[in-house]
Design goal:
By secondary structure, this protein is an alpha/beta fold. 35% of the residues lie in helices and 25% in strands. The chain is built from 14 helices and 17 strands. The strands form 2 sheets. Strands 7, 8, 9, 10, 11, 12, 13, 14, 15, 16 and 17 form an 11-stranded mixed beta sheet that branches. The chain has a 6-stranded parallel beta sheet with strand order 3-2-1-4-5-6, with helices on both faces. The longest helix has 20 residues.
Length: 441
């Protein structure tokens, strides 16, 4: 074993960073044995140096992250500060001064991953980021390495634990969205500002990364269609249950049937209870991968939190340090296919549409005509009258309101959008209560 230690700079010492520092200290002998050389924490860059950090030598603390990555004796930089800047500049500076990088920064990688990979290649350094997607679940490396000889056609997953917890609570306890969000916040699953999670931004960044790796093409977060879960109602949950489904926020990355384009999207969807993703509960993540030769693979586990994310970071650290000792680099960017990302309108799937309509004869025929005119085939229809007080007692033909639920066969999203716009123009349609895609069949 080499006796001179490999020096590591840690950028950020919050929930994840502090756990990385702790494990590096307590498992130092094991890490050294696995790598073939000791690793030494050479500096920790933070914004608030006065904050107590148990297990971290105060002498290592600095507020000058730029000076730390420019030292020249740093072998690996671990970046867990998040955000676009200063993380982007610090990472490129690390490459310029001889360090490889391990990052958990999904937002930066989804926005500017191509430029970061180019900088790493230019300077002959590694860029690893297993922790950027799905926490402790080994997913990035299997896609980049284990499935490198296969053709991945679809990646379908639950990649945000906060939203999965909320939707699970709505399904299992009958809670409304606000009540379930409050519980998630109280338990620490949701941030004080949950926008990134509940509006789908977090999942969209992960979808961009997964699509780029799976299909060997450039996919940025702006290419990912995104809907959050804030509009999911208790009625949607009940409708899903009636169909033998549950509601999940899904990240879906697909290769087109002709192989000439890809799509990436994040939105709530109904999936059959028989699908493996339907049983993913609480704040867990799971990703379903469909490959040509390997078939169907599922990756499951905790998708966030200090310890799970630190586990992924340290796995990358071991790999990068081994490469450093061997004077080699691991797999870099692979975007040789240069496939375009198709718009959401090209996506073909099934839909569940709930309409508030006038409860009188002929309404169903009018609605069916609109679907037919747009080329969207109806699978099933369920109509239920409402009494004036808002209950579910049928009052068909009495001039009140009714709920009309339509489930379609597979159709293009653009055709469905045109159908909804036409429905809104009918005098007998009081409102489109909800639209939800049906996936995983």
């Amino acid at each position: 074993m080499r006796t001179r230690p490999l020096k590591v700079a840690l950028l950020g010492c919050g929930v994840v960073g502090s756990e990385v520092a702790r494990i590096m200290t307590t498992h130092a002998d094991d890490l050294a044995a696995r790598i073939g050389a000791p690793v030494e924490l050479a500096g920790v860059a933070v914004r608030r140096p006065s904050k107590a950090r148990e297990g971290v030598d105060p002498a290592l603390i600095t507020t000058d992250a730029t000076a730390l990555v420019k030292r020249g004796d740093i072998d690996v930089v671990i970046e867990v500060i998040g955000g676009i800047e200063p993380a982007r500049t610090l990472i490129t500076t690390a490459f310029e001064h001889g360090a490889s990088v391990v990052s958990a920064n999904k937002a930066l990688l989804a926005e500017d991953g191509a430029a970061l990979h180019a900088a790493a290649e230019q300077h002959g350094r590694d860029l690893y980021y297993e922790a950027a997607v799905a926490g402790a679940i080994p997913l990035v490396r299997p896609l980049r390495e284990s499935l490198a000889g296969d053709k991945v056609n679809r990646v379908l997953g639950i990649v945000n634990g906060t939203t999965n917890f909320i939707l699970d609570r709505m399904d299992t306890s009958g809670a409304g969205y606000s009540e379930a969000l409050d519980e998630a916040t109280a338990l620490g699953y949701a941030e004080a500002d949950p926008t990134a999670d509940v509006e789908g931004f977090d999942a969209a960044a992960k979808a961009a990364i997964l699509a780029g790796i799976a299909f060997h093409t450039r996919v940025r977060i702006g290419d990912v269609y995104r809907e959050g879960i804030t509009e999911v109602t208790a009625a949607d949950i009940v409708s899903a249950r009636r169909m033998g489904c549950t509601v999940k926020l899904l990240a879906i990355c697909e290769r087109a049937a002709d192989g000439n384009s890809v799509t990436a999207r994040v939105h709530p969807a109904m999936i059959p209870l028989s699908h493996p993703l339907a049983s993913v509960r609480e704040a867990y993540n799971a990703v379903f991968v469909e490959a040509e030769a390997a078939g169907q693979l599922m990756f499951y586990g905790p998708g966030a939190g200090g310890s799970p994310t630190a586990s992924a970071v340290l796995g990358d650290l071991v790999a990068v340090c081994r490469n450093k000792l061997n004077e080699a680099t691991g797999p870099g960017d692979s975007a040789y296919t240069r496939l375009p990302v198709s718009p959401m309108g090209d996506v073909v799937t099934r839909y569940h549409i709930s309409l508030d309509v006038a409860d009188k004869p002929g309404v169903l025929a009018q609605v069916a005509t609109v679907f037919a005119e747009q080329g969207v085939s109806i699978d099933t229809v369920r109509q239920q009258g409402r009494n004036p007080s808002g209950g579910d007692e049928a009052v068909a033909g009495q001039g009140g309101e009714a709920s009309l639920v339509v489930v379609t066969h597979r159709a293009a999203d653009a055709a469905l959008s045109a159908t909804v716009e036409a429905l809104r123009g009918l005098d007998t349609v009081r409102g489109v209560a909800s639209i939800m895609r049906v996936e995983g069949e």
